[in-house]
């Protein structure tokens, strides 16, 4: 599981959900939480993941699914929870 998740991390710290490459903040949350439960955060670049999540924050303090898009309560929850885990 840790190997699969680590293969989904892109150089900018984001995560794709599958081999087709869609990026979404929810994937970052799922990756971080799953690896935390498995005690395998060492399998990814946590610093890059945190930087990517912070880059999704908007002027209103909330988060969008990728940098520069509209804030959403669901993405704000996943961002805050992922930042707490990492």
3D structure, described in words:
With 86 residues, this protein is mostly helical. Helices cover 49% and strands 0% of the residues. The chain has helices at residues 2-7, 25-37, 46-55, 73-85. Helix 2 packs parallel to helix 4. The two termini are 18 Å apart. The relative contact order is 0.20. The model has no long low-confidence stretch (mean pLDDT 96).
In helices, the fraction of residues equals 40-55%
Number of strands: 0
Evaluate the radius of gyration: 12 Å
Major beta sheet summary: none
Q: Total number of helical segments?
A: 4
Low-confidence runs (pLDDT<50, min 5 residues)?
A: none
Indicate the mean pLDDT. Answer: 96
